[in-house]
Amino acid sequence: MIRVQREDFDVGREIEALTRGKTGIGGVASFVGLMRDVAGDTRVTAMTLEHYPGMTERELERIEAEACTRWPLIASLVIHRYGRMEPGDRIVLVITASAHRAAAFEACEFLMDYLKTKAPFWKQEETPDGLRWVDADYRDDEAVSRWKTD
Amino acid sequence: MKLLYFAWLRSKIGTAEEQLDPPAGVTDVAALIEWLKSRGPRFADALNNPKAVRVAVNQTYVPWSHPVKPGDEVALFPPVTGG
Predict the structure, then answer these.
(1) pLDDT digits (tens, 9 = 90+) for A45-87
(2) Cβ–Cβ gap A116/B82 under 8 Å
(3) Which of A71, A77, B23, B80 has the greatest number of C-beta atoms within 10 Å?
(4) pLDDT number for residue A150
(5) Which pLDDT value is given to residue A138?
């Protein structure tokens, strides 16, 4: 399942809702991305996430489907927020559940690496020097390249 | 053809969305971008670095060699920075 929303989410409630009744699950991995108050040496006071409605959902669904072909997941959830956020706010949640932990851990990392390089979101930071668009990080491309299969 | 611009491409171009009718010779993404650059300094500036422009046609990533046709939704945007 994927959700793109402005509102915050409750991690515990989402894990509970996703896994309830699915008693074949033996391991649940989750990742929560938070808004940091610093970028390099610059203080960041707030951030606005813009996205491409329609394509965002399609990309997230595609990435989740790919994870399901690679690992035996029993349940998965990706929530990504958009709009204005302040330091400490939750931005993204990935939950993966499987019979054993290895698949859950790996699929969770895979989903995060892929969504960071493919899902059409863009961050604009508010800093003491004004607004600035965040540049893509080459390390995200390196992170995703380890999942490539030829 | 519906054109969409996001993030700093939108800021530089000055609009988020427009309906355009490119000339008949514009049959792929590369030609479309060349034509857009000829529309004024804002476009020329925003699109001047090919490495910084990602393209989606009908909400799917495509290379610059991908064909475009009337009725397509073409989005131009910088490398993504979500997560």
Answers:
(1) 999 999 999 999 999 999 999 999 999 999 999 999 999 999 9
(2) yes
(3) B80
(4) 67
(5) 84
- Domain parsing of chain A, residue ranges: 2-145
In angstroms, how far is CA A37 from the centroid of its own chain? 19
Give the integer Cα–Cα distance in Å for A85 and A92.
12
Residues whose CB is less than 8 angstroms from the CB of residue B60 and which lie 6 or more positions away in sequence, other chains included: A55, A58
Contacts of A139 (CB under 8 A, 6+ apart): none
Topology of B2-77 in CATH?
Answer: Ubiquitin-like (UB roll) (3.10.20)
Chain B nearest CA to A121, separation (Å): 5
| A92: nearest CB among B4, B59, B83 | B83
The strand pairing partners of A94, in sequence order, are A31, A78
List chain B domain ranges.
2-77
Which region among A10-14, A21-25, A116-120, A136-140 has the lowest average model confidence (pLDDT)? Answer: A136-140
Q: Which residues of B touch A55 (CB under 8 A)?
A: 56, 59-60, 75
**Interface confidence (ipTM) of the complex:** 0.95
The residue ranges of chain B whose pLDDT is under 70 are: none
% residues pLDDT > 70 (chain B): 100
What residues of chain A, 64 to 93, have a C-beta less than 8 Å from chain B?
A: 80, 91-92
Contacts of B75 in chain A (CB under 8 A): 52, 55, 120
Does the distance separating the beta carbons of A137 and B82 come in below 8 Å?
no
Put simply, the answer to whether B6 touches A50 (Cβ < 8 Å) is yes
Which SS3 state, helix, strand or coil, does residue A20 take? coil
Look-up of token digits 């895979």:
A110
